[in-house]
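stage 2 :: seqdesign
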């Protein structure tokens, strides 16, 4: 990265984010995404995930500033010393999950997830799901509201709210967490190696339809979902040293 990096600023549609965008562009200029040294995302965690999905393939590090409701993946927003903050920022490499879903109509839908992939019941009827790991059935029938697979970066979000474990960054693990499991009632999920291939089979898709959501991308009426960690896709987030992502995830485990 150059001593004075070329920055591409992106902002959510929220008025305060748009105001910050205009202010920062006036101060630092605006660089084209393809030519940028770093992307600066202004918004909340939802906008950060949107940025990663849209521009992650460019391979540019992303420095986020919180101008939204939730900002776990963001730094504090203030315009002062932005260049110095970017220069001293600590990188955190994230590897997304790859999801491939087969629907009742026979179509296949693929997507990436940096936080989690969630299977959810579509109606008042509970979902019936079979779970296989690396080609071996591990749970013949899970009756539940849903089930998810979460990355370490996503383990503090929806996964933690569903009583799943918080995973340390760099632990090369993923969390398999049920949502309101009815049977087996005592099953709390599992912590798996990151390279595990997880296969969900929907056992009664017509009576008990199920949807799958990869971050914010939803596919309805699925009959099978296969999830594995991406072997070749990574993104780099930049964090201020005093509160980097690893520290944030660790701190979440001591919140009482």
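stage 2 :: out
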């Amino acid at each position: 990265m150059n001593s004075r990096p070329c920055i591409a600023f992106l902002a959510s549609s929220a008025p305060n984010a748009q105001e910050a965008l205009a202010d920062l562009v006036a101060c630092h200029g605006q660089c084209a995404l393809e030519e940028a040294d770093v992307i600066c995302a202004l918004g909340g965690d939802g906008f950060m995930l949107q940025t990663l999905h849209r521009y992650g393939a460019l391979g540019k590090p992303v420095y986020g500033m919180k101008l939204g409701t939730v900002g776990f993946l963001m730094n504090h927003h203030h315009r002062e010393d932005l260049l110095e903050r970017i220069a001293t920022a600590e990188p955190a490499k994230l590897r997304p999950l790859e999801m491939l879903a087969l629907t009742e109509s026979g179509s296949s839908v693929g997507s990436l997830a940096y936080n989690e992939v969630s299977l959810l019941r579509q109606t008042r009827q509970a979902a019936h799901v079979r779970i296989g790991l690396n080609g071996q059935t591990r749970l013949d029938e899970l009756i539940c509201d849903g089930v998810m697979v979460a990355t370490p970066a996503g383990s503090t979000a929806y996964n933690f709210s569903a009583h799943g474990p918080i995973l340390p960054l760099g632990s090369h693990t993923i969390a398999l967490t049920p949502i309101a499991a009815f049977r087996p009632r005592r099953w709390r999920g599992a912590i798996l190696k990151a390279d595990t291939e997880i296969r969900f089979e929907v056992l009664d898709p017509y009576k008990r339809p199920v949807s799958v959501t990869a971050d914010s991308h939803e596919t309805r009426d699925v009959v099978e979902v296969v999830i594995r960690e991406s072997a070749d896709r990574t993104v780099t987030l930049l964090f201020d040293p005093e509160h980097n992502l690893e520290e944030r995830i660790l701190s979440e485990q001591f919140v009482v």
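stage 3 :: structure notes
- Residues 7-94+234-252 form a domain with the Rossmann fold fold (CATH 3.40.50.10330).
- The chain has five helices and 17 strands.
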